[in-house]
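Complex 382.
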Amino acid sequence: MSQQYDVIVAGGGAAGLMCALGAGQRGRRVLVLELADKVGKKILISGGGRCNFTNLDSRPEAFLSANPHFCKSALARYTQHDFIALVGKHRIAWHEKTLGQLFCDGSARQIVAMLLAECAANQVEVKVAHRITGIDKADRFTVTTDHGAFTSSSLVLATGGLSIPKMGATGFAHDVARRFGLRLTETRPALVPLTLNVPELSGVSLEVVTRLGRASFREAMLFTHRGLSGPAILQISSYWRGGQEIAIDLLPDVDASSFLKERKRTRPKAELRTVLGEVLPQRLAQHLANEGTMANARDRDLDALAERLKTWKIVPTGTEGYAKAEVTVGGVDTDELSSRTMEAKKVPGLFVIGEAVDVTGWLGGYNFQWAWSSGWAAGEAV
Ligand code: FDA
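Predicted structure with dihydroflavine-adenine dinucleotide bound:
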């Protein structure tokens, strides 16, 4: 005999637990089925173990999707302030680090404990180490696992994206959605380091503005032995497709042309590289400038160098892939889902939430906010 529930949530991550506790609050009988031996593994490692759980500035423009309007409804109905209130109710101390990013003072474990406490208070059952081996739909969904079968009237796919396969990320939600006839958008690794062959600069870091199309981010950039990383790069990586050029302003606060010409007047004997070293890390200055003194540099060469410093154009050779990507861009096509409830339009009772959906946030707590908001939206409807 299979055990009966109102709601089965596949995946005990951020979105799944939020959905479960919301549905539980409404008196629904809820089961969470988690493949791993514990829930919320990505929450635990997030934000360097302190979980950047939301962003004060969360707004629809901070999310990428083939339909940029889709996220608006859920984000408006369960906001960053709602989540902050929940964190406050559980007396979890937090602080703003930078750019509206909120972190636990203590540990990400507090966020998982909070979600589990809310689930327990609302009689949600959570089963870990359960592998789903089959899903069938007749009047109800039947979910078969390696520990028996369960049925429900609603099934929520909350198994996340493809990032970090080593941590158990699978294409499960995508595969099930596809099997039920839902379309997917193209997926690719996002918030991911980019590869570029400049090993001689490994270790150099500086604040820059990265630009691609209409997207631009002013944050730190770090040269690694494989290419480029740091928040300015991770952010722009979500917009990048193979072969595209990224423009980087290496001197966001400096009018480079005026600066160089002024130094030519006031420090004519100085090496160009030394002058550049006033405003750039020394090794980067060495890399970018030719040998020679300021006096020997023609104004038009200084203009060309200034242009290069303000718009350093790179074409990355690739990304470091899902192994290093914080999130996945793309997923279940939002056209297939109700933006109010996350229910599949053509499969009543089937819901998709969190990273499995084609909605991806910027770096800085936005992805968890999407997990909370989309999870809550479904929790109100299942
Ligand atoms: P999530 O991945 O959280 O949960 C999915 C769950 O489903 C997992 O528990 C998984 O084990 C389970 N599962 C998978 N396959 C299954 C199957 N077949 N059956 C049953 N269960 C299955 N975001 C942010 O806003 N702030 C931050 O600080 C960070 N930091 C961060 C660091 C690192 C290293 C990574 C990789 C990612 C982040 N993120 C982040 C992104 C954030 O972790 C991510 O967007 C959310 O966890 C997505 O929530 P979901 O619930 O959709 O998936």
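The two ends are 23 Å apart (CA to CA).
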